Amino acid sequence: MQGDRPVAELMEVAASTAPLLERAQRVVEGLERWAPSEAAWLALTDPGSNVYQGVSSAGLDQAVTEYLDRPAVAKEIEMAGYSRNRSPVSVRELPIPVEELPTWAECLIPAGFKNGLGVPLFDPGGQHVGILSLLSCSEQPPSSVTRTRIEQAAPLIARALSPMRSLLATARIVQGVTAGVVLLRDGTTCPLQGLDDHALLDAHSPVVEIARGALLRGQVYRSFMWPAPTDRAGAGHARLTVMAANEPPSFILGMVLVTPDVNHRGLTPRELEVLGLLVDGRSNQQIAKALVVAPRTVAAHVEHLLEKLESPTRTLAAVRAEREGCYVPPFPTRLRARSG
What we know:
Strand content: 15-25%
CATH topology of the largest domain: Arc Repressor Mutant, subunit A
CATH superfamily of the largest domain: Winged helix-like DNA-binding domain superfamily/Winged helix DNA-binding domain
Structural class: alpha+beta
Number of helices: 13
Largest sheet: 5 strands, antiparallel
CATH architecture of the largest domain: Orthogonal Bundle
Shape: elongated
Helix content: 40-55%
CATH class of the largest domain: Mainly Alpha
């Protein structure tokens, strides 16, 4: 490949809406033609724990790729500085002899590799996305041409593979969304670049707990309402939209998004709470106990919300509320016990 064609191909992949694994495969195929090597490994990093997960490779058998996905390999990558130094680094240039690195001694050298060139991948926002490794069966250092090409390509590769970019594109589909956060499978969260932060999205908030529970139960989508913390009158509510991650890497569980100032069909804050308990399958007596009110008060709330939702039965009202995300779910039991 000559001229600007390789860069143009990478730019096309970076702008593509194809699934992440397909984009990763196209990147590796392009590199095989532009910066040839005996093998290549492309991996994304978990922003919470720095574990690496391979998303594409060439010239590696399954045993090698499975070894490279181990947490111990991530520690070696960190020790070698690949997550900090933005320039390509040959494994032979490291202060530690290659034969003393477990990944090389136990896996790569027995597989026939003697040298490697690694470059960290950072997205335009500066977040560490992953790593690209080119492996060689020769002890000869990578050529200056290969180094230059890989260094130039790294930002485009990072942009093409950033899972946050894919999540942001999906988030933009939700009308009026202004804030969002990514939920990681290890129980932590990370910002969704391109959207604002929000007080409701604190890692320990009930909203995040509800969203995480829904995703862990296998729900791919959920929408509900929650009192806006900035509204002193207590009448304003934001809509929360929970969406599961629909492609790798596996360490991303999904995301929760905030849409402020939403229409709640004229339902009062208390009616939204009652409706949430209806959606949860509670009887009037159970709702009364949960809200510490008289059963007749609950009956009056139910009558009013049925009228506002234009629903003849409480079952239909619950279905309509869940479909429209027009209810406030019960406070998570675990957090309630902790606060008590």
